[in-house]
Each structure stands twice: as C-alpha cells, then as structure tokens.
Amino acid sequence: MTNQNGRFGIHGGQYIPETLMNAVIELEEAYNHFKDDPAFNEELTALLNDYAGRPSRLYFAKKMTEDLGGAKIYLKREDLNHTGAHKINNVLGQALLAKKMGKTRLIAETGAGQHGVATATAAALLGMECVVFMGEEDTIRQALNVYRMRLLGAEVIPVKSGTATLKDAVSEAMREWTSRIADTHYCLGSVMGPHPFPTIVRDFQAVISKEIKEQILEKEGKLPDAVIACVGGGSNAIGTFYHFIEDKDVRLIGCEAAGRGIDTFETAATVNTGKLGIFHGMKSYFCQDEYGQIAPVYSISAGLDYPGIGPEHAHLHDIGRAEYVPVTDDEAVEAFEYLSRTEGIIPAIESAHAVAYAEKIAPAMGKDQIIVITISGRGDKDCAAIARYRGEDIHE
Amino acid sequence: MSKIGGAFENGKAFIAFVTCGDPDLSTTAACVRAAVENGADLIELGIPFSDPTAEGPVIQGANLRALTGGVTTDKIFDMVRELRKDVGVPMVFMTYANVVFSYGAERFFGACKEIGMDGVILPDLPYEEKEEFLPVAHKYGIDLISLIAPTSENRIAMIAKEAEGFLYIVSSLGVTGTRSEIKTDLKSIVEVVRQNTDIPCAIGFGISTPEQAKKMAEISDGAIVGSAIVKLIGQYGKEAPEHVGAYVRKMKDALEAVSLI
Q1: Model confidence pLDDT, tens digit, residues B91-133
Q2: Mutant choice from B94, B107, B129, B146 vs A, greatest count of A C-beta within 10 A
Q3: Rounded distance between C-alpha atoms, residue B52 and residue B124, angstroms
Q4: Residue A136 sits in a domain of what CATH number?
Q5: Considering the domain boundaries, does residue A149 fall inside one?
C-alpha cells in the first residue's frame, strides 16, 4: 500500500533531520535487498519458529462465547510468544536486518516495556549492544520490565523530558540516533516514525494475520466477520489487519485507549480526538492543541499512551476500511478481570482494550458469526498496577 | 538575492538564536535588540515546540519554560511586528513542521510576510519533504532555509543547488548544545557547497566560544550560536539582555578579526 515516498494516502513521509536521512535511505535499501533474500528469510523464520515459538495459537474461547451468547470468539495468542508479546516478531526481523547491515548496537524506545524487553532479548541472542529509552513515569509503572531488560544485558535510560512517557522515549531515542549512526540501528517498536519504519514493522508483524487466516480457514472453513486489536502506534493491529485488508467483508476494528474518556483531556484516543499533523517523522493524526503543541496524553496502559497513530492506520481510517473505537480505562480493567476469570488467560492491559470492545459487540452478533481478538501480550506485568487501580496495596 | 544575503555583507556573519517567550516575550524582544546593537547580523527566532527532537537539554528547557509561560505563535507574531519598527536586520523563524502545519501553511507564511520575517528553518523538513511548504513560502517571498549535516555526503550537492537564503551547516552529529571540540571535516563540506551554489553558508551546533566562532568563520561565511545564548537567558532571566549584548559583542569581535584577514 505504500508508494515510492513511503506514503499511505496523504500520511507517512520522512519528516526527520537531515542528519538521519542517509541512515533511513540505507535502511530502506538494505530492507529491499534482504526482504526477498531466501537465506535471510530462512534464518528469520527459524528464529520466529524455534526461538519465539511461532506460529502462535488461535484459541476458541468457548466459555467467553457461551457467556456473551453471540458471535464465536477466537483469541490469537500473541501473549504466548517468547517475551510475552507480539513485539518479538518485529524485533527479531529488525535485529537480524541490522546485523546484516553491519550494525553492532540497537537502541529502542519502550512504553510498557514489552518492546524494550524484546529488543534486549534479540540483542542478547545476536550478541549486540542494547540501550532502551523509557519514560521515567513508565519505569515506575513497569518496574519489573526494567529489571528484565537489565537482566538481559541492556542499559535502560529513564527519560525525564516532557511528560516522561512513550512519546518522550521516542524523541530521546531519535536524538540518540542523530548522535550515533554508524554502528547503531534504531529498532523502532511500532508502525510509526519516518519511512521505511511503518512498512518494515508492518511486514514483520503481518505474520499475525497470515496465521489467523490459515488457522481460521482450517477450523471454520471461512473468514472471520471481524478482527479486533488494540491500537497505540498500531503494530499488533496492523499485523492483525494486513492480510484481511482486501477481504472487504471482514471488519477491521482498532481499539484506542480512551483513558478517562474521549470527552476529557485524559485520553490517548488519537483518531477519535486528534487532528492531522506532522510529528516523529510522519504525517498522521495526533492529539495536539490549536497551535500544534503535542498533547500530554493519558491511559492506564503505558503501551497505548502515545499521542499519534501509524500512518497506514490513518489512511485505513480515511478510506473507511478500518474502524477505530475508544475504550476507557474502566472498560479495559473490567475486561482484564473478565478474561482472567472466564478463560484463565490474563491479557496485557493493552490487549484488554480489544477484549472490552469484543464484549460489547459479540452479544448482538449471530451465533454463526466469528470474531478474532488479538491478545497482543500477557498481563503478568500489569497485575500490580491493576491491583492498585482496584485499591489493593500490593507492590512488586 | 533575498534580504537574507544582506546579513553576509558586513564581513563574517554572526547569527544569534533565541527561544521566543523564554522567560517572556518582552525579555525576548530586549535580547534581540541587545544582540543587534552589539553586531548580530541575522536573528533566528525559535517558536517553541512541545517536543523539539533536534534540540539538546538547554533549548529543550527554554521551549518548556516558554510554553509553560503561555507563549503562542500568534503572540510571537505580535512581538515581531513591534520589533520590526526599529530592528532592520534579516530575521528567520526556527521551529518544527507541526507548528507551521497546524497553523496552516498559507496563514503562517502569509503572516511571516506581513510582519517582516525573511525565512523559516524547519529541522524536521529534509529535502525530500520540502514541497510540503515550499510553494506557499515562495508565494509570500519567504526563504525556506536548508540544512546540511556531517552525514549528508552524497546529498550535499543536491541540497546546495536548490538552497535559498543561506545554507545552515550542522557542525556535528547529534542535537543542539555546546561542544568542547568539533571534529567534522567541515572544510570539505563547504568546498562541495561552494561548487554548487553562490548563496552564503554558516555553521551552527556546538559553537560557544569566540575561538570556535573564529575557526568556523575562517572556513565559512558565518557562525550560528543558539544554546550558549539561551543558557545566558536561562541563567539571568529578565536581566539577560545586557549579558546577551556583551556576549554577542565578544563573538562578533572575534569574527571581525577573521573578516580583516
């Protein structure tokens, strides 16, 4: 869906300092070379299968289906991947690519810590140096993941600037990349940033929808009526949507973090509350004020706490192919508890946003209809924070 | 040649940067006047942005102070309108693409012309994306200043050929901020620039001392100083103008010594 300049409709592009231009051009050339290289793909597939544990399961959630009384619900279990989230799909791809490019050092931003943990893991596996930038606020919300990254040999740098969350971690990683390019690859964690990142990350995450399609055809003999995923920058969502974009009867539903509600300032629902802008290397939708100052967004979920959305999602929204719906903190926390109790699966609070929306629409759908929810990550990391949200005083 | 070229007609140019609204707009205006009275040839006015990805900690801090103080693009335009009553040197805005985009390119560049700005520098608008604003900038006679970085290499000629106003040569990798040493081979970058354009080129990023400014001016047409001035403003607040004036005088004197050679 991208054209020559990395555009998705009017979105995307390369709005970055001149210092980085040759780096992204070099990355694009390397990617175009290796993406069709049989040896590269063989090596990556082996890592995805033997190391990360792909293909991930497509699980029929029987109890949830019976309880909601409508559409059949399947869960795409990205939470079962090594490191506990979909992030590893993209990271193994980029880390291998960086290694082929002769880079010896990976830098990354992280919100919830899942992408940081995945990057630290790939760096350990491939013998590369790793530095992860994480908003100071998030290092507190996700202390366990900070420890995991350090255990894996990565350096974690708490970012104190701005709102000290995900957007500031991205800004700081970009600043670091402009100061050290020769040996360093910026392993961006979502389908955002300057071209070619939105395309590269999408391609590495597209394995999710490729598998869903094969698995659902085998189990049900037909395509699902809807696929649902949570959206921050949008990497697990684009991975979930990609191979269904041409199947017009499949509804593509992205669940944005509404925080305390889209009628409040404490929200991170970009499509629902943002407007067109240029930030972090791309043209897309962003939460911002009338003068273009980026808004300090809020969500209970550190992984969805980002003021923008990937350019391909912005385009899918423009052309009406995908729907982007807001889900509040309260709804997500209830879904987090609901899936744990009903199916014995503790989802990441991010993924719980998708579960919450499925709970809303499934009862009104027919029993012959099918919903696939991508469980992008597992919820162990969130237990302490959710307990505190419910007023229980526990600490990790 | 645009009016910006005039800044390079009094020997080596000294280009001073200030973040508008840090700590308030009247101090910014007073700092600009002090810089001009003490020999600044061109003024760069930073319109603050919430997430300035090309800036180091010093200018990041200034952006934050200015925005917390309630400065907006419209209030900055009003300040420039006042300044233009007595300040004649060329002036350019330095800000980020989203500040221009969200204001509306037509409205933004239209206002630039009306209040007497001469150019705009957008560090997140590389050669590949300049069509975003170039047609509108030209409609209002505003120069869109291009940057060249230590990593530009094969891109220098392409950028220089289409450059306007002046060329901003980034001295070092990384973000803005003072550096003890500048190691880039700037001489060969300037050589390629000279082969491809007649417009002047000035070097910025990391320059804070008269010795550094002199060194940079020996191989180019001028020196750009941002963080060192912003640091003084951060340190002295409302009392900053006299300190900024004294600093600019010291820096311009160093450049005048080069011009006489």
Answers
A1: 999 999 999 999 999 999 999 999 999 999 999 999 999 999 9
A2: B129
A3: 9
A4: 3.40.50.1100
A5: yes
Give the Cα-Cα-Cα angle A287, A292, A294 (nearest 5 degrees): 45
Is the domain of A220 the same as that of A290?
Answer: yes
Question: Virtual CA dihedral for A99, A103, A104, A108, nearest 10 degrees?
Answer: -90
| A68 in Cβ contact with A62 (< 8 Å) | no
CB contact under 8 A, A175 and B53: yes
Question: Would you state the structure tokens that stand for residue A228, as one six-digit string?
Answer: 């649902």
A interface mutation test: which of B98, B133, B155 has the most A CBs within 10 A?
Answer: B98
Cis before A38 (ω within 30): no
Residue B169: strand pairing partners: B148, B203
Domain boundary among A201, A233, A258: A201
Question: Is A135 in the same domain as A66?
Answer: no
Answer whether B99 sits within 8 Å of A292, measured CB to CB: yes
pLDDT category of residue A22 using cuts at 50, 70 and 90: very high
Residues A167 and A23 in one domain: yes
CB contacts under 8 A, B 55-84 vs A, are: 56-57, 60, 64, 67, 72-73
Provide the token pair at A312.
């391909």
Q: Give the strand order in the sheet containing A226-231.
A: A58-60, A72-77, A370-375, A226-231, A251-259, A322-328
**Domain B3-260 has what CATH class?**
alpha beta
Is A19 in CB contact (< 8 Å) with chain B? Answer: yes
The minimum CA-CA distance between A44 and chain B, rounded to whole Å, is 31
- The answer to whether residues A189 and A210 belong to one domain is no
Altogether, the residues listed in chain A come to a count of 396
Q: Calculate the average pLDDT of chain B.
A: 96
Residue at A292 is within a domain = yes
Same domain, A274 and A168: no
Q: Residues B213-257: pLDDT tens digits?
A: 999 999 999 999 999 999 999 999 999 999 999 999 999 999 998
d(CA B215, CA B258) in angstroms, rounded, equals: 9
Q: Model confidence at A112, in pLDDT bands (50, 70, 90)?
A: confident
Total domains in chain A come to: 2
Q: What is the DSSP string of A321-334?
A: SEEEEEEEHHHHHH
Measured in angstroms, the CA of B196 and the nearest CA of chain A are apart by 18
CA-nearest of A329, A323, A198, A330 to A272 is: A323
For residue B123, report the phi and psi dihedrals to the nearest 5 degrees. Answer: -65, -15
Query: Tell me: the pLDDT tens digits for A53-89?
Result: 999 999 999 999 999 999 999 999 999 999 999 999 9
Containing structural domain, residue A295: 55-84+206-389
Evaluate if residue B35 carries a pLDDT over 50. Answer: yes
CA distance B243 to B224: 18
Within a domain: residue A2? no
Burial, A266: exposed, middle or buried (Cβ in 10 Å; 0-12, 13-18, 19+)? middle
Q: Are A132 and A170 in contact (CB under 8 A)?
A: no
Rounded CA-CA distance A96/A204 in Å is 12
Final residue of a structural domain among A150, A170, A201 = A201
Let me know if residue A120 belongs to a domain: yes
Average pLDDT score over residue span A1-6: 62
Residues contacting A213, CB < 8 A, separation 6+: A223, A243, A244
